Amino acid sequence: MSYRLGINLGFAINKYIEPEVWTKVVRENLGLRYVQFVADLLNPFWPPDYVENQLNRITKAAKQYDIVVESLFTSSFTRVNHLMNPDAEARKFWLAWFKKFLDIGRRLGAKNAGSHFGIMTFDTYDDADKRKYILDEGVRGWQELTFYARETGYDSLIFEPMSVPREMANTIEETRDLMARVNAHAGIPLKVCLDVGHAPHPSERDPYPWIEQLAADSPVIHLQQTVLHKSNHAPFTEEANKTGIITRERVMETVKKAGCTDALFAFEISHREHWDTDFRIIQDLKDSVDYFRPLIPE
After folding, report:
1. Whole-model pTM?
2. Are 256 and 230 a contacting pair, CB within 8 Å?
3. Computed from CA positions of residues 163, 40, 263, 177, in that sequence, does the dihedral angle turn out positive or negative?
4. How far apart, in Å, are the Cα atoms of 81 and each of 3, 14, 98, 117, 151?
5. N or C: which end of the chain has fewer CB within 10 A?
6. What does the alpha-carbon distance between residue 118 and residue 45 come to, in Å, rounded to a whole number?
7. Alpha carbons 7 and 289: distance in angstroms, whole number
8. What is the pLDDT of residues 39-54, one digit of tens each?
9. Among residues 254, 244, 166, 182, which one has the least CA distance to residue 214?
């Protein structure tokens, strides 16, 4: 088995954005090596010269601190409609955006990349014909990206089950259906970026069946502490663990039961800007690493 402990860099947005800073925090403060890089730290829409400059800085800093950029993902400010935008022109330039994003990821050494599947507007979701059309468009968009990703050198693309039906993958069955639809004509497999705190549908709120059913198809698994009926993205501190439903033992037992043998376990922990949390971000993340480290030593 190859399990690796790492972190999604969403924690660094607007806090530790400098490449020389976040790499040092990940390696020296948290004792981690593997990261899932996020688009909010280097957006393909930005001017090419700036993107190139940032890539050079990131590559240099990652080498200095022995950081492995294993995965690539969208994040808070890129949680938009993209491949399911109702505007055809918008879908076209988001498809180009994802190709540039994949180019960035390969420069950083990523072997998988992804996002949420897409988001429908209410106008689209409330109209059965529009809903079917835009879902077909989303599937075609992802299929095109899988062929581009194959040419670029990726192993797989990934998408994350989200919170409400119009954000897609709201149930285990729907998640499997989306994979099957894209993979019916794909250059490389579309897989899942599972989150142990995402169990959105009211009839599927227990996160552990999600892990058992989907972990085998998930090369990246997001770790967060949460409570039933929410997705808190809380740290694994002693305080949060008292009321949280996520335990390291049960997560790892369920992952193994699912048949998952190779995965990056990436902390996806959020700290809202608040006096009570802003000054303990690093300590909370370190506590989370210490909690899972006994079961994922790499």
Report:
1. 0.96
2. no
3. positive
4. 32, 23, 13, 9, 25
5. N
6. 18
7. 9
8. 999 999 999 999 999 9
9. 254
